[in-house]
Amino acid sequence: MHQLLDCKLKQTDPTLPPSQTSGTSNLADQPITAAYHEPRTFTDTSPTLYPYLKHRNALTPYAQRTTDIAVIEAGLASNVKTYIIMPPTIYGAGTGFFNRLTIQAPIIMRSALRTGQVMQLGKDDGDVEHVHVEDLAELYVVIAKRVVEDGMQGFPSGEQGLYFAITGRYTWAEFSRGIADALYEAGGVKTKEVKRVGLEEAAEQWTGGDRLVCELNFGSNFRTQADTSRSLGWQPKKTKEDFDNHYLETAKLVMESQK
User: What 3-state DSSP class applies to 102?
Assistant: First the structure.
């Protein structure tokens, strides 16, 4: 992978540095299996963030994290600036012509449509974060404009070029209840009751049996601060009300896509 990325980056116009979409599941703990637990808040201004990613990946290889490390190392080897955007849970409907759905909520909703009930993995008070897809898109616009205007002068790339995109927080209990209420209102399920499930069942339903991906994305904790992103001029507009209202819109889109 590293050789392929290195070859690709050498063909890249250095005035238009590549950006990569990653995710904060790279930093998430593993409370279900108790394989890793470290309560802390990460900021994208921290000089120790990249070494931390390498440390975590040495302990437990995770495909997304492995890819980010490879992109950064290939960029450094090719003398090409790289920027990696690490959003938390992305919610809301996109405005594009094709897929308008995000990931976590639609996956749980499709599972509930199959089984007749919404499932929840993890503790009720799991501490996780979100960003609306439109606010996330705006961060890309901000970075692209800065690259064109002044080459991101004064802002980090490579090992330090990791940008967070948090706009709010929620718990897994809130998430599950919001999904259950929305699917019930939309006529997708006949009960608002949420079923607690273990990691094995959740992984079978949501991630094709991949327990690590399931735990990191549907049952973990993580806290971040988007200090560098905001210092660029990123000003997200969506509020907690938008997050609370997105469930029904997403439920209707998921149900429509199943027809």
Answer: coil
